[in-house]
Amino acid sequence: MMNQLGFPGDFVDLVMECVTTPKFSLMLNGTMHGFFKSTRGLRQGDPISPLLFVLCMEYLSRIPHKMSEHHLFQFHPRCQAFSDSTGLLANKHKSAIYCCGMPERDCARIGCLYVLIKRVTAAQCDVLVDRMISRTKIWSSRNLSYTARVHLINSVLLSLHMYWAQIFILPKQVLQNVNKVCRAFLWSGQAYSNKPSNISWDRSCCDKKYGGLGFRDVFKWNIASMGKYVWAIASKQDNVWIKWINAVYVKDGDWWTYQPKASASWYWKRICATKEMLKLVYTQAEFVAITHYSVKGVYEKIIGVKPLIHWECMVWNRLNIPKHRFICWLAVQERLQTTAKLARIGISNSATCLLCGQYDEEHSHLFFNCPYSSRCIMALKVWLNLSALSCTLLQLLRVTSHSRLTKFRKQVVYAALAAAVYFIWHSRNSSFWNSSVPTMQHVVSKIKQSVKERILYVMPKKVSRKDSLWFMSL
Ligand SMILES: [Zn+2]
């Protein structure tokens, strides 16, 4: 044992001399009776005893350490007993093992996700989609408004994806499934649905200033998060991984023009492919000049600039009642399922307005050329003291945004318009489903009441005294 631990031969011989030579004698009735040799052990009181003890214990502690690497190593039966009697266990949900450079067979046995060896298959990522589906199943029992669903998708479903996307390059199929679950949940409140959506998913994924709902495009977000590794290599960060990459793959070559060999690992090839995609939006100098890599910043760069919309301030106005925003978002884009629209695609027999029964129910008619809605708007104009003559939704928006009203007053007008859109659409639906239309007076008072309540609740702090007096007098 001491030879194995690397002690010099002479020293080992000396120790062995001490261990092998002791002789013992038995004393019976006060006299010694011969000697017998000891086969192991030191003389009594030998000072090297504790030192040898330490060496033996060192050997013992090395054995479990070595054995823990053995493939048959398992929970010791006594540890199992300890666990059973105390109830203490390792939490598998909180524990993760990441293997690198191990034979595939061993990894599969441990059952972990392995990096850098093999491609991440769609089946391995099913956990992600399953988790999303289980979340939506919990929510689907509740009757959530569209706005609430938008929030849940953004804050819960897509952040699950965000966590994964920073570690793996997710297979296309998985990303498509992520989109599918989110889209189904948005439009139907369920995890699975074939219901056609009013607005394409790509459009919903735009930023709010470009007319979308501010969802992330999962494909592009994945590129932006993986771009962090490309950037780390390009900016030659000082860590082991980068050194390893440089030693094994790049080898003093130029990283920006580097092409992976056909024999390289799947993961490495994907990182190189990510670099190629980033090259479409960045020049080498621009990319290296980034001092602090921000996934969001790079994502926005990949998305690029799109035509701005002019109704953002109205639809996403802070003073709007949250559930009015979504209907308003659809209405300004003329994407509500009006009867005229349903008639065009052959679902409805008649295209006539459900409120007045005289004209085709187009968006421009409903908001607000219809006799019913135009009277509502007239009442609101009187209420808010607006002099604008125009009566369609988009015209009213434009006039308001160009008017000389203070910011707060504009926001109040927007909130009232959004409420009008919501309640008129509500009346129209009530006519469709219940065959009864609320009276115009009822609708107007509902609009006034809800707008006042909401604004009193979220009143901005920086409102001039004049404006707040004006609002109180409404
Ligand atoms: Zn009408």
TrEMBL record:
Which residues does the UniProt record annotate as the domain Reverse transcriptase zinc-binding?
293-375
What the entry lists under Pfam families is as follows: zf-RVT (PF13966)
The organism's place on the tree of life at top rank: Eukaryota
| Record InterPro entries | RVT-Znf
Q: What is this protein called?
A: Reverse transcriptase zinc-binding domain-containing protein
Which organism was this protein described from? Spinacia oleracea
Q: What is the lineage of its organism?
A: Eukaryota, Viridiplantae, Streptophyta, Embryophyta, Tracheophyta
